[in-house]
Amino acid sequence: MKITRVEAIPFAIPYRKPLRFASGEVHTAEHVLVRVHTDDGVVGVAEAPPRPFTYGETQAGIVAVIETLFAPQVVGLSLLDRETVHTRLARTVGNPAAKSAIDMAIWDALGRSLDVSVTELLGGYTDRMRVSHMLGFAEPAAMVAEAERMRDTHGITTFKVKVGRRPVSLDTAVVRALREGLGDDVGLYVDGNRGWTAAESARAMREMADLGLLFAEELCPADDVLGRRWLVAQLDVPFIADESAVTPADVTREILGGSATAVSIKTARTGFTRSQRTHHLAEGLGLEVVMGNQIDGQLGSVCTVAFGAAYELTSRRPGELSNFLDMSDDLLAEPLCISDGELAVRPGAGLGADLDPGKVRHYRQDR
Fold it and tell me: CA end-to-end span of the chain, whole Å?
């Protein structure tokens, strides 16, 4: 089970509509397909979605760092040498999506080699997760209509509402319209992507106090240390650290410093190996956990549900598993299907994610 080659293949698939949030917007999924080859002929796969406005990575940067730095460091290692892989990749600062995709592709190859699913290798708690859907910026009527369509078509009843890009009163009005339009049986939470100040966040949460929100996520910047502590101390819902808590050390700082009370785990930025560390830390600290989404395609969503379903803690809450519905196409040979508000772990060894070779050829950008 020796690693013989690591490929980084850039590909681009347009979104059906632009995805807008406080820190930026995207029109095309310009991601990187990572394939880890072994001497047994097994190939593990994963997806790296760059988010330059959040983590500083670009598609070209991910390809370059994998080809020039990371691949030479892991070729020759066994699929079982995951701690060695982690240590070697950690020598390079940043590049979370690139590192994570290599890590997850190695886990996929390991599962395929052992004829065991990644979810079983990780913990095997369940085989599915409930789904939450992200609602980006639009007019209130359009956002309510999208939520209704997701509920009627896919059975989704939990929605993450992007806020922080418009004036506070407009954002809170949207959330109120969603509550009034969808009823009390639907779960709602808000994500500001650091778009408000602490004072604006406090005002917004007061205006939405009667709406029964589940969480508030990254409403204001974490580097406003005192303002954020002041805000979190007055909230009566969990405050999720997302992009401010990428590593277990970040989680420790945010939680012990009083700047957050819950955490989002995104396999696209911490893979499976580092996500395990964050999960165990959160479990020890008694934190709420949600499985987040980095606007992943279907392959990335397969990775998220594989990890989230592996543990009781990460499967308690609906995971952000539906952003692939906004893409016009994908690379999987068999598309994902959200039914009755749930996404199941793919059957089969590893991640159970087989790619369509024709689609890979069509959408890749390096040929």
Answer: 30
Contacts of 85 (CB under 8 A, 6+ apart): 73, 74, 77, 102, 103, 106, 273
For residues 346 and 302, the answer to whether their CB atoms sit within 8 Å is: yes
- Residues involved in catalysis: 162, 191, 217, 242, 266, 294
Strand intervals (E) in 1-135: 3-21, 24-38, 43-48, 128-135
- Per-residue pLDDT of 182-195, as tens digits, reads 999 999 999 998 88
**Contacts for 279 with CB less than 8 Å, ≥ 6 apart:** 265, 289, 311, 313, 314
- Which of residues 91, 115, 139 is at a domain's end? 115
Can you give the residue range of the structural domain that contains 58?
3-115
Residue with tokens 């509509």: 17
- Give the confidence band of 21 by pLDDT, cuts at 50, 70, 90: low
pLDDT at residue 367 is higher than 80: no
Instruction: Please say which residue of 90, 115, 140 terminates a domain.
Output: 115
Mean pLDDT of the region 315-333: 96
Domain-embedded: residue 361: no
265: Cα within 13 Å, side-chain hemisphere: 34
* 77 neighbors 85 (Cβ within 8 angstroms): yes
Q: Report how far Cα 218 is from the mean position of its chain's Cα atoms.
A: 14
Residue 97 has a CB neighbour count (10 Å cut-off) of: 31
Nearest 5°: CA angle at 33, between 366 and 95? 100
Answer yes or no: is 194 within a domain: yes
Residue 257 to residue 235: CA distance in whole angstroms: 15
Residue 24: per-residue pLDDT: 67
Burial, 334: exposed, middle or buried (Cβ in 10 Å; 0-12, 13-18, 19+)? exposed
How many residues can be counted in the chain?
A: 367
Beta pairing class for 43-48 and 128-135: unpaired
Report the predicted TM-score, pTM, of the whole model to 2 decimal places: 0.95
C-alpha to C-alpha distance for 227 and 280, rounded to whole angstroms: 28
> Residue 200 is inside which H or E element, if any?
helix 198-207
Among candidate residues 57, 59, 44, the one with its CA nearest the CA of residue 12: 59
Q: Quick one: how far is CA 6 from the chain centroid?
A: 23
Q: What pLDDT is recorded for position 296? A: 93
